[in-house]
Amino acid sequence: MIFSPDAFTGSILAVEGIKDAVVILNGPTGCKLHHGFLSDRQFPRESSHNPLAFQDEFYFGQPRVPCTCLDGEDYIRGSLEKFERALAAIAAKEKGLLMVINSPGASLVGDDLESVIKKAGMQDRCFVVENPGLSLPAARGFENVALALLEHMKLRSPHLPVNPKKVNLIGLSLLHKHWEGSVTEMKRLLSFLDLEVGAVFLAGTSLNEIKESGDAACNIVLFPEYGRRIVEWYRKSFGTPAVLSPLGAPIGFDASESLLREVATVLNIDPAPALAEIRKARKASYRQISRFYSYSGLPKGASFSIRAESSLALPLTHWLYSYLGMAPLAVKLLPGSDPEEAESLRIFLEEKGFCEAWDRDPALESTDIAFADGPTLQLLKSKECCKAGVEITLPEEGYIHIIPKTYLGISGALLLLEEIINGLRSK
C-alpha cells in the first residue's frame, strides 16, 4: 500500500501555501474536511485560532478551504446558483486571491463558473482551475496550479533590471515535512553567500513576493518534481536561470554542498563562507558518530530502506551510503518522482553493487532502519520489516512539532544523524 497524496491534494495545498490566497473548493463537504484540516495543520494562519468564527454554511466549522458543499441535486441540476451564493459569502470574509478548484465529481458537471465570476466583477481577484490533475501524483497538481497562478497574475515587467542579490526558492510545498524549518535553513545558508530569498514557491510566501519574483538573479529548485516546469516558465518569461543540484534536494552534507556550489557558479560568487559552515558541522557530527561507533560498531554496516520521491531518495541514499557506510536493501520511489533523478539513483545503486535494491518494496526486506511516511513506517514495524524508522514525508503519525525542524541543509543533516543514531541505539 502507498500512502501518497494525489494531484487534487497537491493543487489545494499549493494555493493554501500562499499567505493571502484561498481555495474555494467546488465540491461536496467530504472533499473539504481532510484538506481543511491538513492546510490548517501545515500552515496555521491567524484565523485558525478562532474556528468558532467559521460556522457559516460554506466553512463547516473549519477556517480553511471553504466549500460549495455540493449534493446529489447539484450534480443533476447544476450548481451555479449555489456557487454564486458561496462566492459572495466567501469574498466578503476573505480579503486575498480566490482560486476555485473543482473536485473530481464537480469537474464532470461542466458548470460555467467563470460566468458567475465575471457577473460578480471579480475576474482580477478570482479564477477557476477546471482540472488540476485529479488522481495524478501530487507534484503534478502542485505545478499545474502554480503555472495557472503565474499566468493569471501580472508579474513585474521582464525588462526591469535583475537584482543580483535576490534568489527565489522553487518547488517547496506544504506537503513537504518541516517546510517552515526548511525555508529558515535555506535563508540562513544563502545569507553566507550574501543572498536574500524573494519568493518561496509555494510555501509561506505572499502574492506580492510572487509578483516581484521576476527580477531574481536565479531560481533555486529544491524538489524538482515540484519545480522543473515552474523554472522553465520563468526562463521563458524572464530569462531567469535555474539552479538544480545533480544530487537532488540539499539533504546531507554532500548534497547541500553541491547545491551551494551550483548557486555560486551560476551567480559567479565565492561559496567559501557557506562551505566553511558545512565543514564545521561535519567536524561536530564526526565526534558523535565516532563515539557511537566505538561501542556499537554502527551506523557503518547498518541496512536501510526508503520509500520517497526521487529528489529526496537520491541524496539520502547517496549520503547514508557514502558518509555513514550504510547499506541500501530496498529503495522504492513514489509516483510522480523526477525521472532524471530516478535514473541517477538507479545508476548509483548499480555502481555500488546494490542493483537489487532498486524499485524494491521495503515490505519485502528486513532492515535496521526505514525512511518513509508515518503510516508506511507503522506498517513496516508491524511486519517486523524494520527495527527503527524516520518519518521523512507526509502523512505523519500526528507528532506535534513545536521546535522548528528541517531535513534540508546543515540543520537537516544533523537532525537526521540524531534520529538515525538514536533509532539504531534503541534497538
TrEMBL record:
One of its GO terms (molecular function) is oxidoreductase activity. Residues 7-424 form the Nitrogenase/oxidoreductase component domain. It holds the Pfam family Oxidored_nitro. It comes from the Archaea. This is Nitrogenase.
